[in-house]
Specification:
The structure is a single chain. By secondary structure, this protein is of the alpha/beta class. 44% of the residues lie in helices and 15% in strands. The protein has a 6-stranded mixed β-sheet with strand order 3-4-14-9-10-13, with helices on both faces. A 5-stranded parallel β-sheet has the order 8-5-6-7-15, with helices on both faces.
Length: 471
């Protein structure tokens, strides 16, 4: 059975269920498996023609513990992704759309909140429910969102009997659709909180609450955002699904991933470590380009957060990057901890020239500002009669640039489409003149009553609110 340890060296030998329920390690680090399971060429080849749920079993089964034996895991995956009970609105779960020769869009927005986060969080809710039922526990989930994670986490936990969920989002910095998807559900165990500040402020409050060990223990805190390892492994699945469709997991692919927090593209890195043939992983950022600058210069340097048309990527602290940095540093937790301390205290750290060279054997990066984003939305609408949200358009813009950069190639590029265009109607309409309609299942969203709480960027106030609501 695979065990898990913290990137910062303080927690080790943990089981999958312990990591699932803990979220963040007690030393402030992120959990990673102590070894990477590698799928055989025969197992990879067998994925061709399998359903999403069947591929998910092949990918996830090596990572779980005895709480999730094969029979139970298959039942949970079928409940999440099978055709009988699924809440996804496309039978393929994550369908591929061909844009032109060797350029594909992987559509990840066919879940209940129209964002890629649904793919993992619908599963995470079922995993939580099963683990908590076994242990007779109740947890308080605390998370931060730059737009999409919050509603997807809430939707994933709505049916959980032993969960209270608090989601922090930056007040006035998410779209109306994103906000309403969190504030209009009316569930007794759901608490959306608008924080006066940025997403990074929200994320810092979450980390501070987890690092208050007395508060963490009293509330039995857990996390569902991408600091939770189970989120990462659930996202890893659709890279295998895309590869199975385009070459039976035998043909190398390149993936372009719009990212702010580095979680989604780290899931692709996990797929590569498991044996999936990947030529390049390309980071796509907006004007908040701390990740792109890292792959250009080998330094992480924090700047001010600039509001853009792609608010889910308006981030300067990419929390999941710690996992990749730990790998890049040869799993040296002492070196990793120093880098994280330098970044927290000075807003800056650097890797060595050799480490950057190593990173660039797999990774590349690009950026698109708001003007380029609008141009790309307009271009794909004109060329393919396809409406695309700003985040997905940033990925496609970088994909076009990557294709121009590398010249003729037989390796397909798959660009991830992360959100439905109706989540960002103003930007889409500005670029195309077309106002994207909400799907029928959300057609009354703008008329529903909202319930949320507003808080200052203050840990004590947040802790008091959580204690009050869970008493």
């Amino acid at each position: 059975m695979i065990t898990y340890s913290s990137t910062r060296g303080g927690d080790s030998g943990k089981s999958f269920t312990e990591v699932l329920l803990a979220g963040l390690a007690k030393d402030g680090g992120l959990f990673l498996p102590d070894e990477w399971p590698v799928l055989s060429p025969e197992k990879l080849a067998s994925m061709a023609g399998k359903s999403y749920a069947e591929i998910a079993f092949d990918v996830i089964a090596p990572f779980v513990d005895d709480h999730f034996d094969d029979v139970r895991l298959k039942a949970i995956l079928d409940k999440t992704y099978g055709q009988a009970e699924t809440r996804f609105h496309h039978k393929a779960i994550t369908p591929l759309r061909q844009l032109d020769q060797n350029l594909w869009s992987l559509e990840l927005y066919h879940g209940p909140t129209m964002a890629f986060k649904d793919v993992a969080l619908q599963l995470l809710g079922h995993l939580f429910d099963a683990a908590l039922e076994d242990q007779g526990e109740r947890v308080t989930i605390l998370g931060a969102t730059s737009g999409d994670t919050g509603s997807a986490a809430i939707e994933g936990c709505l049916a959980c009997k032993n969960v209270d969920i608090f989601i922090l989002f930056p007040d006035g910095r998410v779209s109306d659709v994103q906000r309403r998807q969190m504030t209009t559900l009316g569930a007794a165990n759901v608490y959306p909180v608008a924080v006066k500040g940025t997403f990074d402020d929200c994320q810092n409050l979450v980390k501070a609450a987890f690092n208050d060990h007395d508060f963490r223990a009293a509330q039995n805190l857990s996390a569902v955002n991408s600091i939770n390892w189970a989120r990462i492994i659930a996202q890893t699945v659709y890279y295998f699904v895309a590869s199975a469709a385009l070459g039976g997991c035998q043909r190398p692919l390149s993936f372009v991933v719009p990212t702010g927090n580095f979680g989604n593209i780290f899931a692709a890195y996990v797929a590569m470590k498991m044996g999936l043939p990947i030529e390049k992983l390309i980071v796509a950022t907006n004007s908040n380009d701390i990740l792109t600058r890292f792959f250009e210069k080998g330094a992480m340097e924090k700047g001010a957060v600039t509001p853009t048309l792609a608010p889910s990527m308006d981030i300067q602290i990419s929390s999941n990057f710690e996992r990749y940095l730990f790998e890049l540093m040869g799993r040296d937790s002492v070196a990793l901890k120093k880098a994280m301390t330098d970044f927290a205290e000075k807003g800056h750290f650097e890797v060595t020239k050799d480490q950057l060279t190593q990173a660039l054997t797999l990774f590349d990066a690009g950026r698109a500002d708001d003007a380029a984003t609008l141009e790309t939305i307009a271009r794909i609408y004109k060329e393919a009669d396809l409406l695309m949200d700003p985040h997905s358009a940033i990925g496609l813009n970088v994909a076009y640039a990557q294709r121009d950069k590398r010249g003729p190639s037989d390796v397909p590029i798959v660009s991830l489409a992360c959100a439905h265009p109706a989540k960002f109607p103003d930007a889409v309409k500005k670029a195309t003149g077309v106002h994207p309609a909400l799907p029928a299942f959300l057609s009354d969203l703008m008329d529903r009553d909202e319930v949320m709480h507003k808080l200052d960027n203050d840990l004590v106030s947040l802790q008091h609110y959580i204690k009050e609501k869970t008493a």
